[in-house]
């Protein structure tokens, strides 16, 4: 009897997820498999049916291209710095909003605005604000007497990656704030009250109570953000196109694939992006597990 | 003696509290300025004409010529329509398929459940550029290249895992007692989902749907790659590719007008459904 019920549940379960599986195979599994396959061919985009297998030559080509390594470096710098700033700033803002401050509801609503804006729009607005001659930022800098002339934020290649990080921090800190705030709200109040009654200073409460308890939440948020930052395309592309100073791995792969029409090499670059991101994901998830089991042993 | 110390310390604490309140108020104001000023500045700039754009008057000039031109531009209207169609179709499809799968993943016991959930999560963190070449080929096979419907197809790769994941965690929150009586009566799973759970899932569907809509509305990489001509562009691509006749004549006024226009509905939606959106965002991440 039981096995019959179980079998029925198994069958209905599969029936309910069948459409999901079918669509995911069509839009994710198949294209992924084709990308992997193309990365071993010499195919071109305009005539993709006409190709031969050439082994690992595309991968060698990409690995020998200094522009690719520049893109890897840019992406790594962008990810490390922007996620670090977003985590610290997000934590600070979440703690601020968690306390009793005037107009909390208003601030909580306002913080969603940068998050809801399309990346393209945010980038365009900041590009205008950071315009070297007429941008409001440079006007403020000159007006306040901080510098004689404005800074060429976007036009100067060495500042470009910094500007990309700055805009990304503005756009995605709200996401961090929301996740950390949700994590803060499920922490037990009593611990903090007890610590406060015992006269423990706020920085010690933050360091020894809040942060350890928040660690799993922050870990998940950082994981999401790192994986998202590693595949970043739109912000740097809208701001700088395929400029090497801000080129990310995704921009490199798309540039080879679409602009150069090199289906084989572009697919190889995409595959390398995929492998790198999978490696980082495994590393972070492993580190989080270790951290948790370590805490449990203690 | 001790009384005096106490009195002094009370005043000291009161003063400290006031300083603290003031500091927090300043921080909050600073935060509001940081978060809101760029959009405000876009509004200000979008109502300035010609040379006005280059002064730094902080108030809007209230000249709506850029908006009038924008709405007279057939291509821009088309791209808004394209974006709406794509985002609505993607959201509807993802919610439908996602609800079906979420019921099985959240409620039914079958051996493949865990690995399927893990696969769904993994696909949602996929770098999109990885499927670009395979997707490109597929879209050309279907004859969808340069058609907006190709984007509905492509967007399912990130909206469907997202809605499935979030709806699964919503369904798990519902008390099981709801369906127990129905199971006793021999109700089919389809009936349980449609007659018992679905009527309760309104809020969950709204928050998940809004997030999926925003994801689809804002997407750039696929939209840039799978469309070619102005008539099939979505709004982000149209704005991203809006450029002047020469590099010295960058049309910041019109770009700001377009930016304000396409962001306004999103901001209204977000402010209106603020709590639901936060619930949807955190349901997927924190509890998962």
UniProtKB/TrEMBL annotation, chain A:
Superkingdom in the source lineage: Bacteria
Residue ranges occupied by any ABC transmembrane type-1 domain in the UniProt entry: 72-284
Membrane topology designation: Multi-pass membrane protein
Xref: InterPro entries: MetI-like (IPR000515), MetI-like_sf (IPR035906)
Record's keyword terms, sorted: Cell membrane, Membrane, Transmembrane, Transmembrane helix, Transport
Subcellular localization: Cell membrane
Chain segments annotated as transmembrane: 12-33, 76-97, 109-130, 136-154, 161-186, 206-227, 234-253, 265-288
Main location: membrane
PANTHER family found in the cross-reference section: BLR7065 PROTEIN, INTEGRAL MEMBRANE SUGAR TRANSPORT PROTEIN
Family: Belongs to the binding-protein-dependent transport system permease family.
Protein's UniProt name: Sugar ABC transporter permease
Organism: Mesorhizobium retamae
UniProtKB/TrEMBL annotation, chain B:
The keyword Nucleotide-binding belongs to this UniProt entry's keyword annotation: no
Keywords from the UniProt entry: Cell membrane, Membrane, Transmembrane, Transmembrane helix, Transport
Presence of the UniProt keyword Transport in the record: yes
Transmembrane regions: 21-41, 80-104, 116-136, 148-171, 192-217, 252-273
UniProt xrefs under CDD domains: TM_PBP2
InterPro entries: BP-dep_ABC_trans_perm (IPR050901), MetI-like (IPR000515), MetI-like_sf (IPR035906)
Domain of life: Bacteria
Residue ranges constituting the ABC transmembrane type-1 domain according to the UniProt record: 80-273
UniProt subcellular location: Cell membrane
Membrane topology label: Multi-pass membrane protein
UniProt similarity note: Belongs to the binding-protein-dependent transport system permease family.
PANTHER family listed in its UniProt record: INNER MEMBRANE ABC TRANSPORTER PERMEASE PROTEIN YCJP, MALTOSE TRANSPORT SYSTEM PERMEASE-RELATED
Name used for this protein in its record: Carbohydrate ABC transporter permease
Organismal lineage: Bacteria, Pseudomonadati, Pseudomonadota, Alphaproteobacteria, Hyphomicrobiales
């Amino acid at each position: 009897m039981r096995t019959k019920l179980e079998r029925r549940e198994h069958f209905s379960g599969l029936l309910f997820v069948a459409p999901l599986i079918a669509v995911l195979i069509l839009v994710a599994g198949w294209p992924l498999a084709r990308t992997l396959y193309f990365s071993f061919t010499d195919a071109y985009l305009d005539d993709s049916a006409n190709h031969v297998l050439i082994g690992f030559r595309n991968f060698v080509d990409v690995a020998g291209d200094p522009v690719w390594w520049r893109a890897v470096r840019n992406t790594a710098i962008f990810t490390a710095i922007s996620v670090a700033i977003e985590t610290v700033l997000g934590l600070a803002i979440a703690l601020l909003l968690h306390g009793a401050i005037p107009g909390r509801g208003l601030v909580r609503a306002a913080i969603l605005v940068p998050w809801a804006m399309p990346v393209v729009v945010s980038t365009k607005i900041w590009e205008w604000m950071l315009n070297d001659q007429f941008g409001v930022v440079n006007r403020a800098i000159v007006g306040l007497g901080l510098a004689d002339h404005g800074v060429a934020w976007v036009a100067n290649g060495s500042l470009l990656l910094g500007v990309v990080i700055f805009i990304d921090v503005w756009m995605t800190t709200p996401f961090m704030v929301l996740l950390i705030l949700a994590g803060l709200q499920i922490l037990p109040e009593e611990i903090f009250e007890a610590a406060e009654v015992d006269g423990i200073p706020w920085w010690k409460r933050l360091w020894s109570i809040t942060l350890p308890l928040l660690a799993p939440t922050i870990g998940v948020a950082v994981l999401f953000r790192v994986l998202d930052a590693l595949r970043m395309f739109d912000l740097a592309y809208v701001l700088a196109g395929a400029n090497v100073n801000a080129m990310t791995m995704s921009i490199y792969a798309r540039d080879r694939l679409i602009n150069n029409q090199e289906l084989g090499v572009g697919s190889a670059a995409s595959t390398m992006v995929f492998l790198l991101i999978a490696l980082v994901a495994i590393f972070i998830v492993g580190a989080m597990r270790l951290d948790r089991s370590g805490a449990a042993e203690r | 003696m001790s009384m005096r110390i106490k009195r002094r310390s009370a005043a000291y604490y009161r003063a400290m509290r006031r300083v603290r309140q003031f500091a927090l108020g300043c921080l909050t104001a600073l935060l509001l300025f940081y978060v809101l000023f760029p959009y405000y500045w876009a509004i200000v700039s979008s109502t300035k004409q010609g040379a006005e754009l280059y002064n730094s008057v902080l108030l809007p000039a209230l000249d709506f010529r850029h908006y009038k031109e924008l709405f007279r531009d057939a291509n821009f209207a088309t791209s808004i329509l394209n974006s709406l169609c794509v985002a609505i179709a993607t959201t509807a499809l993802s919610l439908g398929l996602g609800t079906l799968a979420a019921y099985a993943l959240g409620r039914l016991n079958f051996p493949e459940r865990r690995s399927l959930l893990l696969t769904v999560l993994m696909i949602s963190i996929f770098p999109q550029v990885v499927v670009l070449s395979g997707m490109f080929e597929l879209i050309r096979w279907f004859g969808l290249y340069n058609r907006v419907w190709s984007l509905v197809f492509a967007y399912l790769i990130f909206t469907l895992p997202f809605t499935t994941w979030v709806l699964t965690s919503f369904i798990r929150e519902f008390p099981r007692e709801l369906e127990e009586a129905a199971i006793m009566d021999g109700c089919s799973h389809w009936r349980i989902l449609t007659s018992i759970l679905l009527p309760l899932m309104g809020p969950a569907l709204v928050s998940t749907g809004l997030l999926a809509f925003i994801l689809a509305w804002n997407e750039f990489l696929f939209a840039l790659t799978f469309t070619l001509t102005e008539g099939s562009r979505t709004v982000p691509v149209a704005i991203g590719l809006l450029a002047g006749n020469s590099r010295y004549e960058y049309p910041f006024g019109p770009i700001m007008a377009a930016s304000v226009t396409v962001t306004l509905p999103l901001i209204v939606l977000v402010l209106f459904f603020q709590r639901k959106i936060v619930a949807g965002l955190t349901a997927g991440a924190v509890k998962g």
